[in-house]
Description:
Elements: H1 5-10, E1 15-17, H2 19-27, E2 33-38, H3 50-61, E3 65-70, H4 92-106, E4 115-119, H5 121-124, H6 129-136, H7 141-144, H8 148-155, H9 162-178, E5 182-186, H10 190-202, E6 209-213, H11 239-247, H12 254-260, H13 266-278, H14 283-298, H15 301-316, E7 325-329, E8 333-334, H16 335-341, H17 348-356, E9 360-362, E10 365-366, E11 373-374, E12 381-386, E13 390-396
Parallel strand pairs: 2-3, 2-5, 3-4, 5-6, 7-13
Antiparallel strand pairs: 1-6, 8-11, 9-10, 9-12, 12-13
Amino acid sequence: xxxxxxxxxxxxxxxxxxxxxxxxxxxxxxxxxxxxxxxxxxxxxxxxxxxxxxxxxxxxxxxxxxxxxxxxxxxxxxxxxxxxxxxxxxxxxxxxxxxxxxxxxxxxxxxxxxxxxxxxxxxxxxxxxxxxxxxxxxxxxxxxxxxxxxxxxxxxxxxxxxxxxxxxxxxxxxxxxxxxxxxxxxxxxxxxxxxxxxxxxxxxxxxxxxxxxxxxxxxxxxxxxxxxxxxxxxxxxxxxxxxxxxxxxxxxxxxxxxxxxxxxxxxxxxxxxxxxxxxxxxxxxxxxxxxxxxxxxxxxxxxxxxxxxxxxxxxxxxxxxxxxxxxxxxxxxxxxxxxxxxxxxxxxxxxxxxxxxxxxxxxxxxxxxxxxxxxxxxxxxxxxxxxxxxxxxxxxx
Length: 397
């Protein structure tokens, strides 16, 4: 699905600094250099991470140049954005492996053949002490304390290293190194991206434009999408898992998912949102269209059709999934430990919460006791399920 320039600059955009300047640059007719950097310490992506990446693809389709920066050098420092403590440094080997994982997902959306990949070590590996001082003197402590996280940590008496204070300056230098025209990121990256614009201005260069996208809430409608909350839709999920997770999205979050995570035509999206607001449509019907669209993005149309049929078979007809993983039990195990072991819950506390909510069943019988022991089946298999989407076969080892 191709989008017009007006749609790209309006649909699913949190803020552009500045929209008028960006339009003027585009009107010059010269391909813009579009910057996006990534932190190799977090290589696994959700569809929330893909919101900005999808914008890159849209600009790429208009003929602009995408430059992906691998933060292999600053990964040794750790991005402080939104963090309350210092992040551990990564080894060189870890950054390389994580970069490969990241790019495998990145290029599911962006055209690899039309993307320039750059590694920070290309320029920072050549930095000398005088280069560091020259960069550091560009920013003041007051500049850095405009960063809310830095301010809070300093006020709370928490450790705040000079290395961390340098991180925004280092990321800003990336824009100098590649001569960026526009930098993309989520709203949580606003400070660092603005630092790049500021550094370019202070060095007499044409300042980059700042293109910020909204943060996608979790499937439960929570403002945060996170692994620990169990509310993510991951790029590496199977087609069936993606489809099922989209169908579980809270109705309240459906409009933003339609707007920023789908390739559905804008006029259709506007009509769906209007119908949802009026209560003239069943949200489930809209979710089916959205789920098919998102599966197609990361797999293909055939996978989307199969996932839809599987969803209807399992959830509408109340049948068991055609494919389930198997877990071998050699001895009795507590239900809480079992849920964590089979990765149906990210932690014991989350496992207990699932049980208390009545979502855990063994052979269709609801488990209510937090201390219940699950014994290996005496014969055949047992089916353990959580909600209407997670199933696993238990077998005696």
